[in-house]
Amino acid sequence: MENEFERRVKIAYLDSFLLYILQQIKDSSKISFKLFVSRNHSEVPENLYRAWKISRYYLKKEDIVFVDDINQQKLLLNIDGETYEFTYKILTKNLKGFIFELYNTLPQKIQKFLFKHFYDGLKVAYLLKNASIVLNYALSTNFNLETMIYAILTGITAGYSGAFNRCFMFLKKNDYYVFYKGLGPNDEKEAHEIWEAIETIEYSIEDFLRNISDDFTTSLEKEFKDVKIREKTLKSFLDYSKDIESRKIKFEVIPKEIKDKLKITTDIAIIPLKIKGKINGFLIADNKFDKKPIDKYQMLAFDFFGKQLSTFLENTEFLIELSQKAFTDALTGLENRRSLDQYLQTNSRKSVVIFIDLDKFKSINDTKGHNFGDQVLKRFGEIIKSNIRECDKAFRYGGDEFVIILDSKDFKVALKVLERIKKEAYHNLGLSFSAGVVLSSNLEKAIKVADNLVYNSKKSGSFEFYEGEIE
Q1: Is 400 one of the annotated active-site residues of the chain?
Q2: Stretches in the chain below the pLDDT threshold 70
Q3: Of the chain's two ends, which shows fewer C-beta atoms within 10 Å, N or C?
Q4: Given 239, 357, 400, 451, which residue is catalytic?
Q5: Domains parsed from the chain with CATH numbers
């Protein structure tokens, strides 16, 4: 029988909410339990086993009295010398019912103390709910980073969440931090209009994600779109050497440049946006219009959503980097065959296609080794890249073969590009190449025709151009 009691005490489930209440009571008052327990282990209510477990593991003191009558079972809770009785009837209620009875039995000063914690806890729970909505959106197939940023700024500024008046996002560019996104009213009149709307219309983060359009722009962005802040200004009041958390900055110590450019008149909250350990931007939030002090909950929301944004930005950069690696030839830095195949599937605009094959490249590998050959290919890729425009495309087709697709319908443009590449390749590498050139909207067929033209180019020693249309 004793072993069964022990087993049931050990497996008794202690709800986190129940433990929280008891922990708060324990921190502020002297507390003890006295348990009246049936000798028949099967007649003992689960809530009494919970109280037994709390006595043993949390209060470090057991005061157990065994009784013969099932109805004599009870729990005596002593708080600062006052004893509160929980009868067998109360103990047989479900866990929620028991916690409700426990709360109602507590002295009023403890109830008030706990209510404050419940209130703060509910706000945090709502914050986590909104964060979950943002996270689920980030994992969805229609994820859009711009919308995600606005959703996070909404989490920081909305009345049901962080409740800051304004929030600014800056991203690093050279020696400056440039304004990128912002949310909040631009003046006091607009602020009061927004607050009036919030009081009469429920508008959640879910609503925002569902309704935001691609051309969405806030009045704050129109006002501050050209603002940039020097990096050294930020360094003047943030210690870059530390792993910076969100901070509240007193108005008096905010640099004048930031005050003037963002029209700041109160304290601010600031958090860096770190990617791979480096600060690539930051968020600033304030309560410019209602002028209320920045409280602990606002800082919690600001810190939480700010770190979420850092994580999303870092993951997005990682995915972009991963995508670039998947579609980039590691040796030459040009796009690879996979990237070419994808490009051919999605593009049918009439363009000039150039197929290049290096002359006598095999003999370079045979006489000077493959490492030297790799360096030649790498340098040749750099030469191609430096002689085409951003609107043009260059691919390593395979081995010593390359494909260039020019955003042009003019063979003269292709000839100029080839002549520049030829001159630089010979000057830097002592290298020549053969090339076939085709104009067509059927790019896949054009590549095959241009490839065939390379054989004629090798025989003639000049670039070969296909005159005519390819179906």
Answers
A1: yes
A2: 1-2, 135, 138-143, 159-161, 190-216, 237-244, 318-325, 471
A3: C
A4: 400
A5: 2-106 (3.40.30), 137-323 (3.30.450.40), 337-465 (3.30.70.270)
